[in-house]
Specification:
Structural class: mainly alpha
Low-confidence stretches: none
Helix content: over 70%
Number of strands: 0
Distance between the termini: 14 Å
Order of helices and strands: HHHHHHHHHH
Shape: flat
Radius of gyration: 19 Å
Number of helices: 10
Mean pLDDT: 90
Amino acid sequence: MTEQAIATALACLLAHLLADFVFQTNAMVTAKRKPQVLLLHGIIVFALTALALGGTPIPAAFLALAHVAIDAVKTYAVPAQHRERLWPYLTDQTAHLVTIALLALYLPEAFASGIWAAHSTTLVPPALFIAGLIIATLAGGPAVGGLMLPHKAQAQPDGLDNAGRIIGLLERALIFLMVMIGEPAGIGFLIAAKSILRFDTVKKNQKISEYVIIGTLASFGWALIAAFATKAAMNSF
């Protein structure tokens, strides 16, 4: 890819991540079978993409239409009992990334023709950091949740509502930040602290113990991959 295509892809990727994981609420996800909710999500994708590209409406409209079409397939074609599993989530996100890559290949100048083009050198590092942070934290939640969904009913520890989700979000954020500041050794202390705090819960039930271990390793692994990939991308610019 040329530098122009990379800038276009990064801008579209950031807009996609913001649309799917920051500006899309749980209520919107639940109600997405309603056409007006799906349309609203498409409008948000269009607005954020147009903004990220610096006011280039045609590529933003293409991505918004493709995004709505992909989400419609997932919403209406995937059975409800499988919709929150890992494979529909990864398939859906891969399809979105493919459309972004295609746009960058065929319209590489989309970002260069926008109002942010003159500031691309300044904007790329923070855009990479924000994209990486969202991938490591918010995008990791559905992935880990989808992986663990088949085992959730058998080994769900008692606790606060959404506590596991919040803990996972915080631990992935801490891992991301530790890697980015060059202190990955601190992750070991995070693992130790979580093991100590979970000890009384997991020692009483083997299924809960295995559930927590698999979920923790998946969460840590996702965050580490996202963090090191982000750092490598930032170092290349």
